[in-house]
Amino acid sequence: MPTPAIGTDNIRALCEVEGVKGVKWATPNPMKLAEAKAACDTSIVWVGGLAEVWAPVFYAVGARGFTSGMINIWPARSLAIHAALEAGDYAGANALIRTMKPFEDVRSEELNGTNVTGVKAALQAIGRDCGPTRAPSAWPLTQPQQATMTAFLKENGLI
Fold first, then answer.
1. Distance between CA 87 and CA 148 in Å, rounded?
2. Domain C-terminal end among 98, 116, 142
3. φ and ψ at residue 22, rounded to 5 degrees
4. CB 90 within 8 A of CB 83
5. What's the CA gap between 159 and 150, in Å, rounded?
6. How far apart are CA 48 and CA 78, in angstroms?
7. What is the pLDDT of residue 3?
8. What is the gyration radius of the CA atoms in the chain, in angstroms?
9. 140: how many CB neighbours lie within 10 A of its CB?
10. How many distinct structural domains can be found in the chain?
11. Rounded distance, CA 60 to CA 73, Å?
12. Contact, 41 vs 15, CB < 8 A?
């Protein structure tokens, strides 16, 4: 994902490179996304790169799709959010996203150092251990973080 700090002209130049078909926008600046999207060929697909939490905002300015850590442990939830956004049902999408708050709160701790850690800990808890994260990620979750994650998984019938 090109950072908006490089400027719209440079983002457009990157999108003009032969073979570029899409952009993962992973910075919390939807107005810059809208500006970059407007400056580029309409065939470029813009994808929200900050997971479900930012997906409605990015959809509102023209992105489609989103990256997801949740899809690894609760695919039906991520797909339901995607379907709601594709249908223009922002209220429905936001209601689904609100239920993810404990999961996303854990992932955002330690300056996002627990982003992947949270996903891997959740996978481990549901019996799909894929090993620890690599440095500089935090590993393992702290006891309070793990308690929050476990409670979230239990409340949603995932364990």
1. 32
2. 98
3. -155, 165
4. no
5. 8
6. 13
7. 65
8. 17
9. 14
10. 2
11. 26
12. yes
Alpha carbons within 13 A on the beta-carbon side of 107: 19
Task: Determine the Cα–Cα distance for residues 93 and 76; give it in Å rounded to an integer.
Answer: 13
Alpha-carbon distance 1 to 5, whole Å? 11
What's the rounded Cα separation, in Å, for the pair 16 and 70? 32
pLDDT in the model for residue 16: 98
Q: What is residue 82's three-state secondary structure?
A: helix
Amino acid 17 reads V
Cβ(52)–Cβ(78) below 8 Å: yes
The pLDDT of residue 69 is 97
Predicted local confidence at residue 25, as pLDDT: 97
Residue 47, beta-bridge partner list: 24
> What domain range is 118 assigned to?
101-155
Specify the length of the chain in residues: 159
pLDDT for the residue 5: 82
If asked whether residues 84 and 24 sit together in one domain, one would say: yes
As given in the structure block, the two tokens for residue 17 are 């490179």
Tokens, residue 143: 């006891």
Please give the Cα distance from 15 to 65 (Å, whole number): 18
Averages of pLDDT over each 10 residues, the chain, 159 residues: 80 97 96 97 97 97 97 98 98 98 96 95 97 93 98 97
- Nearest-angstrom CA–CA distance, 154 and 159: 5
Q: Do 22 and 82 belong together in one domain?
A: yes
